[in-house]
User: Which sequence fits this backbone?
């Protein structure tokens, strides 16, 4: 039996994931206007995929960014509830990016 694609659930999960990432950035006392958060940038919105590409960038500087591949099922599972594992993973990314930005001498 094949899974039925739930476009509303998918968009809800993406919105919740983006909101969670922006919350982590703010909790780390970073200026949210300096950071660009993208999930599957440049890909069709409703295209079915097994993985998602998460990218957090500092002011569009390609070298000052972090990227990670997230399994689709894990993202859907993590964004709908307490999603501690997702927040921990994002927090690790944000801290690593913060370190790169500080090394480059940019304001955080």
Assistant:
């Amino acid at each position: 039996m094949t899974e039925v694609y739930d476009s509303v659930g998918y968009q809800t999960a993406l919105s919740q994931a983006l909101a969670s990432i922006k919350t982590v950035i703010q909790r780390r006392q970073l200026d949210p206007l300096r950071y660009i958060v993208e999930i599957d940038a440049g890909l069709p919105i409703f295209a079915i995929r097994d993985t998602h590409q998460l990218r957090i960038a500092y002011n569009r500087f390609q070298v000052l960014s972090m990227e990670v591949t997230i399994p689709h099922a894990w993202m859907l599972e993590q964004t709908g509830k307490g999603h501690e594992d997702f927040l921990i993973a994002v927090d690790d990314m944000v801290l690593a990016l913060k370190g790169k930005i500080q090394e480059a001498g940019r304001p955080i």
